[in-house]
Amino acid sequence: MTTDSPLSSTVDRSESLRHQIYNDLRDKLRHGRIGPDDRLIDVKIAKSLGISRMPVREALLQLISEGHLVGTTRGFAVPQLTPQDIRDIFEVRKLLEPRAAASAARDLDAAGIAMLGQALERAVAAVEAGDGEELVAANIVFRRTWLDANRNRRLAETIARFADQAHIVRQQTLMEPHTQVIVRDGLVGLHDAFSRRDGLAAQDRMAAFIGEAEKSYFRGIDNAAADPQTHQEGSGR
Amino acid sequence: MTTDSPLSSTVDRSESLRHQIYNDLRDKLRHGRIGPDDRLIDVKIAKSLGISRMPVREALLQLISEGHLVGTTRGFAVPQLTPQDIRDIFEVRKLLEPRAAASAARDLDAAGIAMLGQALERAVAAVEAGDGEELVAANIVFRRTWLDANRNRRLAETIARFADQAHIVRQQTLMEPHTQVIVRDGLVGLHDAFSRRDGLAAQDRMAAFIGEAEKSYFRGIDNAAADPQTHQEGSGR
DNA sequence: CCCGTCAATTCAGTATACAGATTTCGCCTT
DNA sequence: AAGGCGAAATCTGTATACTGAATTGACGGG
């Protein structure tokens, strides 16, 4: 109120402050604009928005309870996931997403399929241009679209939660051309299955897609371990 | 501090107040000691514990974000789940729990299996006595035990979340002798699979168990609809 | 130059206070 | 007595203040 917020473009659409801040932070996390080295301090965020600590604190606590942040004695931060954490997350995703994809294939309407097509085009162009950030953005739109087609909101939200967590650590790998091609091909296959309303194909391809994502992540890890100096690349905002 | 808490036996084990209250409420919800007609008012709970609103409020907000409560304009309450909600919850459970059961069968240690045996005995005795509350309690211990054997904490916690939500609405059905027998037989089968460390059997039986639970719930619903006067039975404390 | 100690700082957790919205309940009208 | 109007009560959301614990950094001894 006193200053225009540096945290977001415009935070002001008649919802509780807590929700606005939650959504804002959630979005920043999704797009990798907050890295593991950043420290989120409720007082600072509040001051930068010209509001009090409490709504910010409550939003941060919710993000913690959802696994998107961890609370330290010195500020809130993005968790440093271990390889085991990643494996655990992928295990859950492998159980949920194929099924949800099959549901989506059945329930997607024309508008949804059109949006999938647009997201796919963006992704293809991004890979062409080697633009990792754009690929991430297109990926997010694509996923959100087929998830939104699911009538089972609990299932969709649970998937979104875990997918976002995995996504954060994959940002790095999505910069590599090899991985980008794999992602593109996966999206092409999924889009094909969705647009044909082929639930079985969607299920199988989603399972394969997730498997590939996991594999490419751990390949990236190994490379980084064998070749440590390539492992820099800003984690911060 | 000023008064001994009516909320719990002893809330005082060197953790943040927010966690203590969260755990306390979570437990009450699990055991059905808070029904859909109760209104949870942060100010009142805080006063009864001799503390301030904020820790209580934060615990309630977390329970909302996990789906265990809903916020109204007049206090927090247990959600009234529709049949579709229940189907959605069971859909997720059917995807996750068989796999987790297989993991547990592999990883359970002797102590865990012993605890499963005890819980099973309690359940059998409860069914014998027609003691619904005791069956609920034994059920909770049984589930918690095999879930705790899972190394994938995210998977275990997600399951616990959904299972608890389903459990709340099933409290009613667990009073019926017919359902009690089904539950008992299911637990016997699961215990057998776990104690033999037979992952495949655990997986299959868990799938069957959940299917039975869903079926018996909807059978109960139909009966209640056809026969409304039997549908009373305290929901609140 | 390194290590330990102690003070200043920083931040989460908790407490208390205030504001706005909604509901409840009593009173008045008809 | 039924219905509507309005004041009081109630409860969430937000703001501000306080406290204690943990970290940082400076100072002094080895």
Q: Indicate the CATH class of the largest domain in chain A.
A: Mainly Alpha
In the CATH classification, which architecture of the largest domain in chain A applies?
Answer: Up-down Bundle
Q: For the terminal residues of chain A, how far apart are their CA atoms?
A: 24 Å
Q: Could you tell me the number of beta strands of chain A?
A: 2
Oligomeric status: homodimer
Low-pLDDT runs of chain A: 1-13, 230-237
Coarse structural class of chain A? mainly alpha
Report helical residue fraction of chain A: 55-70%
CATH homolog superfamily of the largest domain in chain A:
GntR ligand-binding domain-like
What is the number of helices of chain A? 9
Shape of chain A: globular
Can you lay out the helices and strands and say which pair or pack?
Two copies of one chain form a homodimer.
Chain A: H1 17-30, H2 42-49, H3 53-65, E1 70-72, E2 75-77, H4 83-107, H5 110-129, H6 132-148, H7 153-170, H8 177-195, H9 199-226
Antiparallel strand pairs in A: 1-2
Helix pairs in contact in A: 1-3, 2-3, 4-7, 4-9, 5-6, 5-8, 6-7, 8-9
Chain A binds a DNA duplex (30 and 30 nucleotides) through residues 16-18, 41-43, 51-55, 57-58, 71-76.
Characterise this structure.
With 237 residues, chain A is mainly α. The first copy, chain A, has 2 domains: 17-77, Arc Repressor Mutant, subunit A (Orthogonal Bundle), CATH 1.10.10.10; 83-226, Up-down Bundle (Four Helix Bundle (Hemerythrin (Met), subunit A)). Chain A has helices at residues 17-30, 42-49, 53-65, 83-107, 110-129, 132-148, 153-170, 177-195, 199-226; strands at 70-72, 75-77. In chain A, strand 1 (70-72) and strand 2 (75-77) form a beta hairpin. In chain A, helix 5 packs antiparallel against helix 8 (177-195). Chain A is globular. The two termini of chain A are 24 Å apart. Chain A binds chain B through residues 54, 58, 61-62, 65-67, 85, 88-89, 91-92, 95-96, 99, 151-155, 158, 162, and chain B through 54, 58, 61-62, 65-67, 85, 88-89, 91-92, 95-96, 99, 151-155, 158, 162.
